[in-house]
Write a structure and sequence with these properties.
By secondary structure, the chain is of the alpha/beta class. The protein has one domain: Spore Coat Polysaccharide Biosynthesis Protein SpsA, Chain A (Alpha-Beta Complex), CATH 3.90.550. It contains eleven helices and 13 strands. The radius of gyration is 20 Å and the shape is globular. Bound molecules: 1-O-phosphono-alpha-D-glucopyranose. 1-O-phosphono-alpha-D-glucopyranose binds next to strand 11 and helix 9.
């Protein structure tokens, strides 16, 4: 029987070494895209996909993430007293998000280790994983990307990952999946390799920060030795799981903004500002001016 996906795990404990110096005191997941931290977009994507319980994996130094999602009654009262209704509404939106629990990852042991920390909280049911430093927006009119994966899970069972095509010279940055099409946009995985060299890559389809995982992943993680970079890799555990359970890849309708990378972070800010009604015109003029000056 295929169980519904109710819980989402958001790993957000990494050091953010690619984003120093800002990531020294500000968790990279708290970097703003226009006026919201990246992780809020991620939590909102989970909520819009139908997730009702969120588990964020943090390190000791990530207090700002907890503070962001905790209610701040003093500030709410202050805004209400001053009739700042728009600002108050932004705060109240945070209170309406699904319940969030936090688990501290004791030491940085890789993405596989971060997911393993959620074992007790997840229990024996399939769950979503959304990387806390990657924004994935759905195409116009499409469902949120995590929901697109949940739909495939509800139809076929098993585990599911979001895939996007990357140039051959970039396959070494991602988990790369090879397999056979089972329906338009969905492949059944046959090979799955973490950060392969171009000549080893089974395709150019890269895992893109969103997963639905079977709870059997926890046993696989226990058996999986450290992989690339000496870390416990989620991809390696999934590649073993693929031998006994179904694993699918979905070429999702949307695009990913990798926020752990400086240039993409700046691009995401420009792209999101251009999408906003209140900023589009002025931002467009500003960019045109810059380019022609
Ligand atoms: C992680 C995963 C990798 C995946 C990537 C983007 O790598 O290990 O398989 O393709 O996220 O979702 P990282 O970016 O943490 O090195």
């Amino acid at each position: 029987m295929i169980k519904p996906v109710r819980k989402a795990v958001i790993p957000a404990a990494g050091f953010g070494t690619r984003f120093l110096p800002i990531a020294k005191a500000v968790p990279k997941e708290m970097l703003p895209i226009v006026d919201k931290p990246v992780i809020q977009y991620v939590v909102e994507e989970a909520a819009a996909s139908g997730i009702t319980e969120i588990i964020i994996i943090v390190s000791d130094s990530k207090r700002a993430i907890r503070e962001h999602f905790a209610a701040n009654e003093k500030l709410e009262a202050e805004l209400a007293a001053k009739n700042k209704t728009d600002a108050l509404e932004e705060l109240l939106k945070l209170n309406r998000l699904p319940r969030i629990t936090y688990i501290v990852q004791p030491k940085m042991g890789g993405l596989g280790d971060a997911v393993r920390c959620a074992r007790e909280a997840v229990g024996d049911e399939p769950f979503a994983v959304l990387l806390g430093d990657a924004l994935v927006s759905a195409s116009e009119g499409a469902k949120p990307v995590t929901r697109q994966l949940m739909d495939v899970h509800e139809k076929h069972g098993g585990s599911v990952v979001a895939l996007e095509e990357v140039p051959l010279e970039k396959v070494c940055r991602y988990g790369i999946m090879g397999g056979a099409d089972i329906e338009p946009g969905v492949i059944r995985a046959e090979k799955f390799i973490e950060k392969p060299r171009p000549e080893e890559a089974p395709s150019r389809l890269a895992v893109s920060a969103r997963y639905i995982l079977s709870p059997s992943i926890f046993e696989e993680l226990d058996r999986t030795p450290p992989g690339k970079g000496g870390e416990l890799q989620l991809t390696d555990a999934m590649a073993s799981l693929m031998k006994r359970e179904l694993l699918f890849g979905v070429k999702y309708a949307g695009r990913r903004h990798d926020i752990g990378n400086k240039i993409d972070f700046v691009k995401a800010n420009v792209a999101f500002a251009l999408q906003r009604e209140d900023m589009r015109v002025e931002m467009g003029k500003y960019l045109q001016g810059l380019l022609t000056s």
